[in-house]
Every structure is written in C-alpha cells, then in structure tokens.
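Can anyone check this?
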Amino acid sequence: MSLIKPFAGLRPVPERAEEVVAPPYDVLNTAEARERAAGKPWSFLHISKAEIDLPEGTDPYDASVYARSAENLQTLLDEGILRRDDKACYYVYRLTMGEHVQTGLVAVASVAEYDRNRVRKHEYTRPAKEDDRVRQIEALNAQTGPVLLAYRSQSDVDSILAEVAATEPLIDVTADDGVQHAFWVVDDDATIETLTAAFDAMDAIYIADGHHRSASASRVAKTKGGDGEANSDYFLSVIYPHDQMKILDYNRVIKDLNGQSKQQILDKLAESFVVTEEDTAVSPATEAEFGMYIDGQWYRLKIDPALIPADPVARLDVSLLADNVIDPILGIKDQRTDSRIDFVGGIRGLGELEKRVDSGDMAIAFSFFPTSMEALMAVADADEVMPPKSTWFEPKLADGLVSHVLD
C-alpha cells in the first residue's frame, strides 16, 4: 500500500473560507475559543471546540460535546458552507508568517505504515488525549485536525509544490494572528501519480506535531476493520520539506532555587559551564548554549563540550540542561509531573521569561536554542523519544481548511 494517497477533501467553498478557518483545537482553551468564535457562526471552532455552544462549565470531554460537534458539522454541510470534492486530490498548503514561508502537501498517510514506524514518532502520547480524539473522529466520521509531518527535502517533490504554489490559490486567508494560509487543489492525475511514487520511494516521513491525532487514527482504523485501503486506514496530514519548517525555542521557568542562594547556583554551574554575565536578554546563538535569568540578571551558559554525549536524545539541549542543571542542581527529576517547572513557548518572547521571574511567580528562567529538524529526525530514526516540551512549531496549521471523511 502507498505511504500517502490523495483523498476527496471536505472543505469550505472558497467564498466562505475566511469565515470557517480557525486556530487548531489544542492551542485555545474553552474561554478563548468562545471569544474567538463570537459572532462567527461558521467558525470551525464550533466543530473542534463544540463545548462553546453548550452551557458554561460543560466538561469538554462530555458526550454532549461530541454530539454537538457532529450537529454543527452537519449544519455547515446543509448550508453549503462545506463541500466534498468529487475525486481524490492532493492539495498544496502554504503558510506565511512574516518572512518565513513553507509549502507542503496535504495528503492522507497510511496507518499501517505508521504502525510499522515508517511514519516516525518522537513523543509519548497520553491515553486521555487519545481517547478525546478517538471520540471526536467517531462522532464526526471524519478527521478534522491534520497531523503536521515532515519529509527529508528532495528537489523533485519540492519543485512540484513550488510550481503549484506559483499559481493563483483557490483559498487565501490571513488569520487574526497575521499568518497567511494559502491553498491549492492538485487534481491532475499525472501529478498525483508522480507525488505518490515519490513518497513511496522515501524511507520515512516524520511526525512533527500531532502524535495524539495519529495515534487516535490508528485506534479508529483497528475498530473499523478496513482492508488497508479504506479511508479509515489513512489519516489527514500536511507534509512539509524538513528544511522549510520552523521550530522555535521552548523555554523553562522554575518556581524556586531548591533551597539555595543565587551565588550557590552560580558556583555549581561553573563546574560544567562557562558562565558569562550579559547586559541584555540572552537568545542562545547555537546548540549547547543557554540563557539564564535570575534576580534581574541575564547570564550566558556554555556547556563543557566533554559533557555532550553521542546519543541523539541525551545530546539535545533540553536533555543537557535537565541532566546538568534542572535535576542535579534544582532538584526536578520529572519535568512531566513536577509542579515547580513551567514551559514558555518561544512565540511569547524572552520578555515573558523576565516577566515571570520579576513578578516573583518564578525564581529562575532558562532560554534555549531551538531544537533542529535534523535532531528531531535523528531521535525518530533511532526509535527514541524526546523529552517533554522539546519543540514548538510555528506557524500552526489551521483547522477547517480541509477534512478527511471516513466513509
């Protein structure tokens, strides 16, 4: 079976796309989603966060939420806001955020190849979050949140996508956050065959964001009992060349100094790092370098190269800081469960780190150099798992541009 294949997408009619397209379901809480969808009856948030249409305080995982989501999807179909393509197509999806541009392929990826680890993973999943996506898929009989994937850039695929994106887009929407979402249909049979063959020749493709969505699709496929080529045997994906993807830093703030003074912390750091006092906020310039903010002062930390192991997980910056600072000096063993640590996505800027520490809410902050796609792929190729909060991808894919119906 094919690694990827085209599908008959369910998508907004072009003239209503701007009213439909919404942020992904997992970047907004219920209150934020309710505010963003106010006065927008066709916003996809009414499907992806249907609790906003139920009484305040409704549990987002209550059965009534999934039922309402299905009702809202049917309304958009009945009103002609969403229509399904007549034939299986690929789609091209370009994201533009400031000067950054990435152009990828919308396709459905094989659950069987995911299960065989040819669609490679780098994160653990949590059962509760998987359960939520399974119930959403089953209620809608559709996958509405695409998985963000990457392929190792190769010129034949890249050039086809660029050629398509050089034409007038079918949909061109600029979201509230200034990110531009442009969308093209690829329905030419020869181009479809060329793209399918090019991906079939690849050793692997990589999950960047969407581990719970892909895991839930695998679970649904097993319950559907398809023949390997049924719609339910594939999951909705957008696949970008790895060298066009943008990973931002994912920074850490910690509530206290583990019973130590600032000077004691600095003395311990000096055993493993070159520590330099800085006049301005430190945005690390390379791997194995960190910024630290404590007591109103920034420092640059450069780890002793002898402490950098060869293992693809242990050499990640998030691992180096955990193994040399956060665990042995600050006493945090498990970043997944310890309430003393919090995580700040790089999209919020270094000023957010200063704010959290200066307010007294936190005692110390660390800034990171962004994890590279090459490092992520190396971890996935080794069949290992990255530490929590290792990557923050921007820009985010929109919900509502296209969905995959499982009939």
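Reply from J.R.: I decoded it. The mean pLDDT is 96.
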